[in-house]
Amino acid sequence: MLTKRIIPCLDIKDGRTVKGVNFVQLRDAGDPVELAKIYSDEGADELVFLDITATVDKRKTLAELVTKVAKAINIPFTVGGGISTVEDVKVLLGAGADKISINSAAVYNPKVVDEMAREFGSQCVVVAIDTRSVDGIDFVHTHGGRKPTLLKTQEWAKEVADRGAGEILLTSMDHDGTKAGFANEITSEISSALSIPVIASGGAGNMPHFKDVFTFGKADAALAASIFHFKEIGIPELKEYLSIEGLAIRK
Question: What residues sit in the active site (predicted)?
Fold first, then answer.
């Protein structure tokens, strides 16, 4: 049985880790390099580092910060934000990232998923999907969840998987930062339909939420930010709880 992964997310703005509700009302959550090392030492399975305003501000992720974070940890590390070309990926993998995450770039140029998978291997390519329900239908959003598209979330997830994505990072914008639980229904739909791993993101508020997204949501990994950044849940305690609940967790 594959172990379920716990993944802290470092949302970066102007070189600092931030956290808000529904990607707005941001507050400072600390130095990303320090946080990355703490999570690595505490037993996080992976980290995700997202420069959340890189696409909005039309700039590239800071490779220098990626290098510092990568040097501080010994676990796999995904980087996203402002990545749109094969050359961008080369720079970030060269700076120390294990995987890259693309969102807006894939929506506007789906072929880039094929190109990146062909160049670097599917295992390096994570496609992030920010989804929001509009009149009961789940649609993909870009630019940190600010800009709606006409792409239906489930259909888009299948397309990027077919194009060579190695993993889906599914964030429910309706749940993000609310601490009311993950979007288990759509997570389950996508996880059941695809053969690649799905990382659930958005809504973690307590330990049972993680159990629910792994069982009802059928997620392969669960990502969270503020509950880890502000010490509301410790990673060792969370892993112990999930293990007691019968889930396969990496110690």
Answer: 11, 130
